[in-house]
Amino acid sequence: MKDFVNIYTVFDKPENRNLSNLSSVYNNTSVLYEAVKSLTEFYFTEEFLKGKKILLKPNWVKHPSNIKEETCLLTHESFILVTLKIILDRKPDSLLIGDAPIQGCKWDRLFSQTFIEEINILSQKYKIPILIEDFRRRKYIVSENKPTEDTKPISDYIIFDLGKGSFLEPITSIGKPRFRVTGYNPERMAMAHSQGVHKYCIAKDFFEADIVISLPKIKTHQKTGITCALKNLVGINGDKDFLPHHRLGGTNSGGDCYPGGSLFRYWSEFLLDKANRRQGKKSYWCWQKLSSLFWFISLPGKEHRLDAGWYGNDTTWRMVADLNRIALYGKPDGTVSDIKQREIFSLCDGIIAGQGNGPLEPEPLPLGIISFTNNALVNDRLMATLMGLPVNKIPLLNISNVYELENCEYTLNGKVISVKDLEQYAVKAILPEGWLIYFKNRK
Q1: Rounded Cα distance, 266 and 287, in Å
Q2: What is the pLDDT of residues 66-84, one digit of tens each?
Q3: What is the DSSP letter of 17?
Q4: What is the pTM of this model?
Q5: DSSP label of 93
Q6: Does residue 293 fall inside a structural domain?
Q7: Which domain holds residue 132?
Q8: Mind listing the pLDDT tens digit for each residue in 236-258?
């Protein structure tokens, strides 16, 4: 199958490209249905889908905390339901909708009761089972300080060790483990990632599916610049203790949590590690508050973030690249082939995209597009172009040894286009705070 990126605009005139008009698209299911159908019907034929086990992987990173996030934080419920209807019409054997949100996400607040009812109605109407699954092995809501471990058995996952072939290997320190993910015990991270060892914990459901359809929400991202088709595959990993997001310390000391160096910031990180080793204990709060105090005293600027949300983060994009390699080339026995093992389709919700401090605190962006692709890298380069982001300055968008950049056809509303043609549809997205200086001179 030739690589493609098909883009569809849901606005007819530039003046209608606003939040009010685009929000109404989610409510007008007939218009949304026709838009998704026009993008996918050539590929999602009955011959292709009939009798197959389908996995839908939405962007369910965190439950919304306010009304505006309901349109820009998650893959919209209407978008998922319309996609389901199109697939069900092609008579698959079964459908699974699954993701692994952050540990503090309240699963039952990710979707409405109406959404669940609609799922049940569709399942009964088509007589096809539709399941919804939480891929997480660990949950922890900070305000309650009650971690829940091993919510699913490790036998439900496949452990991949990319070893020296990992994108993380060139930045792996000798001796002292530096990899961190904010809010998790660093000791567990050290067990998964060290020199020559780079393990990931992938849900078996991913490999048991005949066809994988990723449903990302297009957003800016504090750590990688953009999150879309590439970043959405992070949710097939069921245990965040396997996911390095940054390295301890500032750039002056070999880390990438923040630029330069600061004794107060380093102590803040040190104290946060102590807190995370004590999750579930009363002492957690003491260490956590001390960490926050030291961070405050360090007088952080916009690029200084304890969660490493800035342009100099040189870890997260590598982890994302590893997971995309596993998704494309991984085999059910935990090995990685030199030959691509599967096609992964991405149907991206950018009707109302996310801008600013995504992925967890985005502001609505009236982008007005849906994209459909089998090449996540090329797709995300085009989505960055549409958001006015300089593609060549974002490391995640230059992993051409995982995806091919050449021989990919782009279409906009059914017509073959070039990147230059697409630029006239670009909007200037609000940047994550940690990227403002880096993209200061963008056009």
Answers
A1: 14
A2: 888 989 999 999 999 999 9
A3: -
A4: 0.97
A5: S
A6: no
A7: 3-141+200-239+315-435
A8: 999 999 999 999 999 999 999 99
